[in-house]
Amino acid sequence: MGIHGVKVKGRRSCVLRPRQGLPALHAVFNMLALSCIIISNLLPSAHGLKDLKIFVPEAVIMGNAATLSCQYDLEKAALYSVRWYFGQEEFYRYVPREATPTFVFPVAGINVDLTNSDATSVTLKGVTRDLTGSYQCEVSEDAPLFHTDIRSAYMQVIELPKDDPAMQVDKKVIGVNDNFKAVCTVGPSYPPANITWYINGRKVYKTPLQRITQDAFEGSTTYSSLEIYPHSQVLQGFFQAMPKYQTSILLLCEVSILHVFHKNVQQRIGLSMAPPTTISPNLLGLEGSKRYVNGDPDNSALTGAAQCSCSAIGVLTLAVATLAAAQL
Ligand SMILES: *[C@@H]1O[C@H](CO)[C@@H](O)[C@H](O)[C@H]1NC(C)=O
């Protein structure tokens, strides 16, 4: 009669084989079988493999090294092996019992750095894009129970764009009633970059008056356009709070790839309130402008101008009267 630990992926088992023969031995066997079940159910909480965790970088830049690690608690049990798989292919094994505990298996694209690999981690040198995918770490404890557990995690290998982002704008100065368009581009990357627009440090969101598009095809330039229409939410505030006839905003295009790459390009754009030939009463601070606050904002400059000339005539009349009085 013998007790054998049988290695089963992901769980333990306990096998007892009675030999043919005396019924008395069968009774003993039954007792042993029972105790084996009891022991194997009690042991995991007493000592054995638990808390297996895998740590794989979410994103690595192509050509760099990547260290993958696996943490586990064996409690009182001994380690039998740690195996690492890329997809279904094993590429690294650590067996402390062996004279040379580390084994490397040839897997296309994988270059294990043995000086930086051990029982809990494995380092890959010069990662290529093909190494994007799922990695698994499988830990087995030694006899008698051979508890085995496995965890997996995904790693993305990133190819950075070679060129800096660039921005083009269709106007250097935007008037209240102008449409405005800007385009931001960045060279090919893998995966395609995300482009985000900011004005004075605040993100510009997509709305019907703030249109944003982004196009990216694998292996080609990533492109984003921003179109701003009159009375857009983002510019409205700036126009309303404008201290003078002219002010400017800082338009920024940020290019990012996951959390590993961020670059931006920015440009200052002028805002201009009104055509230079029309004088708005708002700007002169005259009473008349208040009556037109609820009127059509598109025509406020024109209607205001009419109001302005009336007031100006009044002021002029008063000035003439004052002058006349002084001469008396
Ligand atoms: C782009 O942004 C989305 C949404 O935040 C994110 O899920 C995705 O991973 C990003 N892609 C890249 C390449 O950074």
UniProtKB/TrEMBL annotation:
The chain crosses the membrane at residues 21-43. Keywords: Disulfide bond, Membrane, Transmembrane, Transmembrane helix. Pfam families: C2-set_2, V-set. PROSITE patterns: IG_LIKE. Residues 44-140 form the Ig-like domain. InterPro entries: CD80_C2-set (IPR013162), Ig-like_dom (IPR007110), Ig-like_dom_sf (IPR036179), Ig-like_fold (IPR013783), Ig_V-set (IPR013106). The keyword Ribonucleoprotein does not apply. This is Ig-like domain-containing protein.
